[in-house]
Amino acid sequence: MSWRPQYRSSKFRNVYGKVASREHCFDGIPITKNVHDNHFCAVNTRFLAIVTESAGGGSFLVIPLERTGRIEPNYPKVCGHQGNVLDIKWNPFIENVIASCSEDASVRIWEIPEGGLKKNMTEAVLELYGHSRRVGLVEWHPTTNNILFSAGYDYKVLIWNLDIGEPVKMIDCHTDVILCMSFNTDGSLLATTCKDKKLRVVEPRSGRVLQEASCKNHRVNRVVFLGSTKRLLTTGVSRWNTRQIALWDQEDLSMPLIEEEIDGLSGLLFPFYDADTHMLYLAGKGDGNIRYYEIGSEKPYVSYLMEFRSPAPQKGLGVMPKYGLDVSACEVFRFYKLVTLKGLIEPISMIVPRRSETYQEDIYPMTPGTEPALTPDEWLSGVNRDPILMSLKEGSKKTSKLVFKTPAREKKSVVVNGIDLLENVPPRTENELLRMFFRQQDEIRRLKDELSQKDIRIRQLQLELKNLRKSPKNN
């Protein structure tokens, strides 16, 4: 039997990436040099937020999308955190509200004024304290307004109800640092990857682990739900230290459906999934390229399409929501690429080449919009509801009229599931102990230097005094 290549017809086979011209980029930005494995970037239809390098605390920039070009060095910042900012996410239903988390063990909610910042913002509308160590991840619930998830280095995931400004649930099933969180379409399930090399599917309201995979051959780093297909995709490292992806059935994590090696590079692979086009984008940290695939319901499940190439390495990538895309140009995805070496943010549009200038309904189905499907009380009581869909056709887009109301609350102990989170501090990790040890060594070295300088000064004074005593008195 002769070998024959398999050809697939796909409307997305010729999708190509188009980099915005220099005047439509954001230049002169001191992008953070933090090595934490996050994107350090968040974008919506009004603002672009980027974590910046700063001294004496953490800060990030919030720039209106129309303000492209070079950004002045003294441009106003959001700078209320006492430690480095590790993650930022825009509220999907209120476009001027953003959540940030930091090494100072806090999560903060900021309300950006209309038109952007005119001066440095230091006061958050809400400060959330419940983690006993630094907080590495924040995620908004996909269908419920004012429900926020945060994952800290205390191995806990806290669920915050921002209507009351308090944590209402705690997920305490992890034994190490949580690396990634992802929701399914209606937000009834949460998938997490952890440094303990396990992939978990959790029911968030009860904290019950529904499925768990111990990934020995495939060390997982990132996970993403593939829309409503009841499948998960993870990126990680094989036993031979090559980058690979794995596809899982969310109801049976005993074995992956497929495992596919990507390359032998060392940078973390970030997965992005577009449920409308069933396209998967893979972007490596430190790489210049973005690979894209089409996800199918039958084997081989994952089909390679093409690759966008660029010589500039990316530190992270922000993604524009679907309702912010340019449908007249057949744009199906848009990245905002952080180029640290140049202090540059490059918009990259993924475009389906079409000759017709009319609205292309086959590549723009109804998509989740800006209206929440549930209130926090409804979701916490056990109700699940699919997101409210909207059309991307010109004239059909609706803007959300929700506003953020700051809850009135008193400072008190944070008790969830009968446990005071601020009193029960878990044992420190090996890395934290090492950092403490080196910090103490530096402090000891500094004190020794100070004592040595003082000792030298004392000897100099003693010598001067001795010389004065030996010299004849002046008449």
Automatic annotation (TrEMBL):
Signal peptide per UniProt: none
Q: Which family does it belong to?
A: Belongs to the WD repeat coronin family.
Q: Which Gene3D superfamilies match?
A: YVTN repeat-like/Quinoprotein amine dehydrogenase
**Alphabetically ordered keywords of this record:** Actin-binding, Coiled coil, Repeat, WD repeat
Q: Is Membrane one of the keywords UniProt gives this record?
A: no
What's one GO MF term for it? Answer: actin filament binding
One Pfam family per UniProt: WD40_4
Q: Where do the WD repeat units fall?
A: 78-120, 128-170, 171-212
Describe the location of the DUF1899 domain by residue ranges.
Answer: 5-69
Top-level taxon in the UniProt lineage: Eukaryota
Q: Which residues form a coiled coil?
A: 444-471
Where is the chain membrane-spanning? Answer: none
Protein name as it appears in the record:
Coronin
Fetch the InterPro entries from UniProt: Coronin, DUF1899, WD40/YVTN_repeat-like_dom_sf, WD40_repeat_CS, WD40_repeat_dom_sf, WD40_rpt
